[in-house]
Recover the amino acids of this structure.
């Protein structure tokens, strides 16, 4: 079974709103084993919407439309669907009353314009909207079943769950696709590709692909079986093979970040952690504490942004900072040694660098970062050049992930 | 002039990734007065990509493609464009060398697979990628000029600015639309709506709309004139009216965050700042130091996550924490008073709360937060209930913005 996802609205085609509905619906529908060859977004234009519905309904079994059901003149999905079906619109009085009741329950009078929301193409079914005024529409057009849902994400999602999903589960027999995303850190996308080339070359089931974001290379695996068990088995085989080949490059899956991976290892080993950050300015502590339950291992973080703060909070000698500069191997070492001792923790991370855009020079360019890592056996400082072509935000994020990855590996991941 | 925006990738059609590139490009292109009738996303399928490029190139003047330029087998945009143009791909050795140089500069060897990124349809132009390996492509196909750009947002945006925009400015004569977004904090979306209803009801130029995100209500204004000066004049009139009505609710515009607003005020008044965070775990320091130049006023931040850290770093008596609890008016007050004194700064912020999802109870539910603010005249602690329906990340972000907004107002914004 194939589906086309169609979203309607000038606010999307002009870029004022990012279309998150299509991604949400795609995830839902993919899980049922329905393939999605394309998403289309069209402006609030009757002819254009009609044409897209018609074209999609010729080629696919299912068309999911979001948006264009509001009460204003630029809401044209009802008219376009009727035109594509070659039928007229008809008012259904019971829906006028439902919409009126929605307003009455909120102590307001229904504006006349909302009557248009009770218009339906002849022969179509109305779908109740449990959290807004606009009812949805289910209709047959060409070879396809077409569902039209509101553009407001919460209303759309609720309508999908209550009315669309049950229909699709009946049609498909329920979830057949399984998916997992394995996240790696420490190698480039082409290096990862080289290690799993033959799996990525497979045209068929399960499929394997990679995406890259801020140094994290993610491997996505999708499997389709005749039933859920078969899908899961196929998925697990391929996931195990990818994990075997990538070894400790893999730090987690799906919603995991490096902070989750680090957290799990610290809990398993009953170890504690503290941080001393300069150029990342609290980002590493923020990422660590994004994880619920991080209070079990994270004790404290210092953002020693000014040089005096490095001296006052961690006793880094002013002379050392003057001699080597705040961005130096020596200062990173002093910071990490002191935060570990004073924080009375097992592991400590320190960071000092030039995040830019200003503050760089030939000796210490933007993107130069020193990362210190200390444990009971001593401390080690690494030097990184994150490249002047990265933005301040990117340099900070790369730095944070690199530091957390070093900690992960030293925890024996 | 009309443009179709085409994004490529299974990660988008399966909903793993939300397509933000199309929205970004649409905003850029709309500003030049170019109409965008549709966005299309297609899966990594050679035939499907070719068909979409061909179809778009028949109907419109401009096709902007993002994605499918990576070095792996599922990157098919080059091949699809060549097929749509009816030409072969050719290797351009100078681009192999550029890609090799990109790796060499990073101390790595170019994987063989990256050679495919130097393939171009015969007769097309290469576009340099200043921040990644994949060059872009400019070609003529049907009646359209086609640009293919990388899917990585940063690389795509940079390529658009350097190579695509100048071409479009020559074609269109430059910007006719002007837009500004004013950001507010401290009132709800319907309250803001009530203050500027008549401006929002205008069907015409300039148009005014609101969006809400994590307590920040943003007012978007668009104007279209016969030329850039007329557009700007129209925009400035309406923006001035909105600013007048909303007063100190407005904290900035466009890329500004509350951290920028606070930074500008601290610089203007030559004041310094320190933070002591518990439940936000470094987020406030991170947001402050997101701003380039924040080292001029931000001295230090403490993440006193564990109770012992509150005592050790800021001398908060263990007895006080035991008596009132870490999440209390008293502890917020002690934290903010001590961080201001010990940090030797003019202003200080403290935060302690229950970010959840665990750790709440009837007396101290998830979402309860105390925010302390101290200056030379003393300190004030406010109590907030951010609601148990918010996620951990949302509670932390609301808390951070609320704290920064209190500081902004106390700096006399």
């Amino acid at each position: 079974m194939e589906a086309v996802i169609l979203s309607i609205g000038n606010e999307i085609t002009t870029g004022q709103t990012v279309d998150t509905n299509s991604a949400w619906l795609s995830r839902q529908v993919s899980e049922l084993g329905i393939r999605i060859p394309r998403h289309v977004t069209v402006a609030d234009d009757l002819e254009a919407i009609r044409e897209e519905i018609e074209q999609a309904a010729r080629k696919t079994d299912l068309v999911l439309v979001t948006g264009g059901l509001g009460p204003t003149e630029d809401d044209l999905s009802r008219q376009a669907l009727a035109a594509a079906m070659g039928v007229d619109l008809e008012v259904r009085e019971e829906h006028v009353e439902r919409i009126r009741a929605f307003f009455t329950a909120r102590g307001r009078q229904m504006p006349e314009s909302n009557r248009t929301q009770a218009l339906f193409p002849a022969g179509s079914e109305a779908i109740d909207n449990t959290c807004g005024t606009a009812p949805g529409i289910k209709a047959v057009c060409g070879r396809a079943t077409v569902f039209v849902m509101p553009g407001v994400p919460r209303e759309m999602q609720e309508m999908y769950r209550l009315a669309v999903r049950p229909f699709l589960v009946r049609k498909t027999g329920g979830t057949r696709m399984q998916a997992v995303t394995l996240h790696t850190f420490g190698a480039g996308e082409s290096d990862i590709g080289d290690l799993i080339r033959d799996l990525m070359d497979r045209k068929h089931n399960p499929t394997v692909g990679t995406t890259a974001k801020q140094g994290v290379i993610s491997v996505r695996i999708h499997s389709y079986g005749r039933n859920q068990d078969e899908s899961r088995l196929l998925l697990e085989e391929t996931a195990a093979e990818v994990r075997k080949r990538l070894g400790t490059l893999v730090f987690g899956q799906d919603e995991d970040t490096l902070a989750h991976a680090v957290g799990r290892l610290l809990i398993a080993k009953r170890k504690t952690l503290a941080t001393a950050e300069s150029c990342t300015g609290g980002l590493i502590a923020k990422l660590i504490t994004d994880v619920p339950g991080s209070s079990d291992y994270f004790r404290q973080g210092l953002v020693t942004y000014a040089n005096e703060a490095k001296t006052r909070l961690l006793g880094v000698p002013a002379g050392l900072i003057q001699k080597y500069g705040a961005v130096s191997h020596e200062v990173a070492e002093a910071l990490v040694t002191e935060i570990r001792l004073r924080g009375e923790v097992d592991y400590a991370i320190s960071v000092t660098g030039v995040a830019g855009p200003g503050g760089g020079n030939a000796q210490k360019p933007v993107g130069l970062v020193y990362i210190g890592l200390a444990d009971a056996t001593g401390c080690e400082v690494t030097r990184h050049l994150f490249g002047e072509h990265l933005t301040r935000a990117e340099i900070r994020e790369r730095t944070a992930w690199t530091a957390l990855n070093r900690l992960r590996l030293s925890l024996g991941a």
In short: Chain B touches chain A through 86 residues (CB under 8 Å). The longest helix of chain B spans residues 153-172.
